[in-house]
Amino acid sequence: MSFLEISVTDKPTLNNAFLIEGLPGIGNVGKLAVHHLINVLNAKKSLEIYSSSLPPQVTINEGGIVGLINNEFHYYKNSKNQRDIIFLTGEHQGLDHKGQYDLCIKILELAKEMGVTEIITLGGYGLGKIVEKPRVLGAATSISMVKKLKKAGVHFSAEQEESSAGIVGASGLLLGLGRLNGLEGGCLMGETSGYIADPTSAREILLVLQKLLSLDIDLSDLDEKIEKVGALTKHLTGMSDSLDDSEIDISYIE
Amino acid sequence: MSFLEISVTDKPTLNNAFLIEGLPGIGNVGKLAVHHLINVLNAKKSLEIYSSSLPPQVTINEGGIVGLINNEFHYYKNSKNQRDIIFLTGEHQGLDHKGQYDLCIKILELAKEMGVTEIITLGGYGLGKIVEKPRVLGAATSISMVKKLKKAGVHFSAEQEESSAGIVGASGLLLGLGRLNGLEGGCLMGETSGYIADPTSAREILLVLQKLLSLDIDLSDLDEKIEKVGALTKHLTGMSDSLDDSEIDISYIE
Amino acid sequence: MSFLEISVTDKPTLNNAFLIEGLPGIGNVGKLAVHHLINVLNAKKSLEIYSSSLPPQVTINEGGIVGLINNEFHYYKNSKNQRDIIFLTGEHQGLDHKGQYDLCIKILELAKEMGVTEIITLGGYGLGKIVEKPRVLGAATSISMVKKLKKAGVHFSAEQEESSAGIVGASGLLLGLGRLNGLEGGCLMGETSGYIADPTSAREILLVLQKLLSLDIDLSDLDEKIEKVGALTKHLTGMSDSLDDSEIDISYIE
Amino acid sequence: MSFLEISVTDKPTLNNAFLIEGLPGIGNVGKLAVHHLINVLNAKKSLEIYSSSLPPQVTINEGGIVGLINNEFHYYKNSKNQRDIIFLTGEHQGLDHKGQYDLCIKILELAKEMGVTEIITLGGYGLGKIVEKPRVLGAATSISMVKKLKKAGVHFSAEQEESSAGIVGASGLLLGLGRLNGLEGGCLMGETSGYIADPTSAREILLVLQKLLSLDIDLSDLDEKIEKVGALTKHLTGMSDSLDDSEIDISYIE
Questions:
Q1: Cα–Cα distance between C144 and A114 in angstroms, integer?
Q2: Looking at the keywords, is Lipid metabolism present (chains A, B, C, D) (predicted)?
Q3: pLDDT at B159
Q4: Interchain touch C–A (≥3 Cβ pairs closer than 8 Å)
């Protein structure tokens, strides 16, 4: 009795495409990065996935119009005869383990139908403390993909700190299930405190993607967000005793 | 292996009908409003929905008779050649995300069969503090519905306070799923503290519905409840140190 | 993918039989009463219900032999041409709302196949304090059943204290689902503190059942348990500061 | 909509084989013992079970390669014309009661297909305190299996301490479901504090298995782990006030 409905706007066949996942997660790093890419590349809406594995909830936009929580594909057709991209984002990941599996299996099925051959998942790697220069840590489904990511500046430590926990949620599951389905892939994890939405970490991921995908990415909009969050962080860490909630709005960075 | 059983008392075909939802929620505002309407309009029982998405529990009425927890339709046939109404209420919403989806999908299916063309969901908008003059906030599935609600006195702020969280549960889901099924709708949220059942907030919603549905609604019964809750609130806020539990019964307002 | 397996020992067709439910619950009152009845009436094992709605767990008996947690039917064929009885008991109720529905629906299906026409569910009514003379409170699916229970000494108060919460779990659900399936029934709730297994409350229920079912029930075994629990309770309430865990075994009363 | 995929490396037909389960649990005793056996017997990978009943998560190995969490069979073909063995291990047990049932039912089905006739499950028996000489406690599906285990040194007390709780999870469920499927079996529970991974307890289990399965098992590797954990435990219990987290790595024993 699971509910699943795909609402298609435009479902083109793409050229040797990447699926780039940026669903909400630690520091919202992946979502920030993918939303930035959708905006600066002017990616087109492809389809919406509605599912009972997502929260029974609607969002309300500025005009007062509601929208059922979903996961979405946007696509970017690369004009230079290079590889196309599908961006996966949404307001939520699947709500429990079965929901995570159900959604990721459907996402991979749709992505393969549209021509996806490789998967890049994006996420944050929570450190529990603020870091000045976040690195981008990596993991991948094959040795060749590890090499490719290293060349693009991704950090793989000999004693992988994240090895004990692994990667939880869609960023891990899409890789694991993808490999069972013959799709190679890698995960980019931007180091982040994990306390607030972190555009600085997302920026580092975008620098890696720029190399990996041979794209020019305008980062100016993100730099503004970084400044705002920087100001907020200074405020929070330096003035926490005299904190006046009404002055601070931590909701403007998603 | 989900259990679902519809027990039909009377399932008429209605004229361009509204579905008005008033299931339990914040401040029980929606349920109070719909129960009031069922009583004053003398709406007839249509059907009962029993489901394993609801709690495995029976209620006991005054005579000691048990009833399995359900969701119910009551209908009101408008004698003046105007639009009919189905009222949806019950003791509980679906228990988890799948249960919410399963029930709302069934409710919409039944409502469409009976002639429903528009959905109005009712709920409370929790403020965390007691408010003297609660406003009725709105959200809707289309711009034309937003306009219709504004004309009836519903408040849509430019910086929608509720936009971050959205609408959780049946009040949101019926709109979101309804839109996927071609049904337009809107949500009326009465501002409320969220601490106790709030007939004052329900009254404001009824004043909006009166305009929206061109109905005369006798509010005297609700005014009595408002007085009782007012006395209780004074007692609770003014005498909280000397509180004697046995003197106060907060269960008589549902 | 739900697992359900019925292991039948003996499945006779019974005469206008009662289903008497005594699964674990508040004060284990229902389970104590039904286990007592199975013992003194020498009821025969009929069948075992194994299900993934029950905990993934085995019990270990004194000889070290494991048994998968289940729900069981025992039956008692009344020699005096009177109504037969099926006793329902087990180590656990269904684990969540779907599990409760799945199990109770299967139990009712099996019970009807074997000739059950009426359901009596047993449970505790938690007071949160120790009560000297526990009453047996009732609820039922019809006015005639309310009358029948009253005649047997069951207490129905005008202002039913339990009316707000209703009856949660199998004791309620079997009645609610039973009524949807054309089976009338009633619930007997023995007042109990809710802190420990309460044979005193179970004894009161047995006195009601004795009248209701026209049975002679030997209570001597239960009286021993009552004495043991009485000694324990005195110990716990009078000597709680000097409590030596090793002296007290609260597991010997199930 | 459950996901289940079996990835087969090698699925031989075995001779009157044992299934030996060592999934994570109390003190990781079972997993330690089975991993040791797989290593010293050089057991071959047979198959991997992927399932939505397991966490939506990948592990990352030292090279940065991800692997979807699964349960695995390794097999050992006994060259001396004796009984073969399948080892079951993995990073997780099923995540909830349905998941436990789903996985164990599939495991038993696969095991029977490959020639398994008896099941030995391994686990820890948590004492809540450190024990110098851990015993191996037992439970089994038949009296003859109890005798067999006793002969191999397994402890069955008259007043079985574990009888109240039983055995929770795969170690219990494989026995319980196995018995329903005509497979006899037993559980070996090594006493352990339950606080940390306990190779000492696993060693006691291996000594029992050595007798039970007529195997020579090299324990030297495990003895090293025992020394490391012993040093750690001394450190933790004796120097807990001056504890420097960076000096201690409790992750190296799985």
A1: 65
A2: no
A3: 53
A4: no
